[in-house]
Design a protein that fits this description.
By secondary structure, this protein is of the alpha+beta class. 17% of the residues lie in helices and 48% in strands. It is built from two helices and five strands. It has a five-stranded mixed β-barrel. A hairpin with a 6-residue loop joins strand 2 and strand 3. It is elongated and about 55 Å long.
Length: 111
Amino acid sequence: MPMQTTAEKPAPLRVISAALGQWVERLGWVWVEAQIAELSRRQSRVFLTLRDTEADLSVQASCTADVFDVVVPPVTEGAKVVVRAKPRYYDRRGSLSLTLDRIRPVGFGEL
């Protein structure tokens, strides 16, 4: 249902941001095709920047080292992958990220 706002009765930014988070949460787990643009490992987590294979769009993602370490063959920057991801919207920062629980390599592409 659309939010009821007007110029005279605007919604506070915190309300809009919370509503965005609720909508993103409803997506649940999704399979996503992307290319790994950047990759870094810090202790027990792996952080990735995933880039769309056709559009100029990227999203931050992360997974546990356990999820990353079982990928065969191992993936590196530039690899095309299919990942199972849970989208998350952080309303305080207004940012979107993906939490990954599976990574499947599907080829190597150009950045």
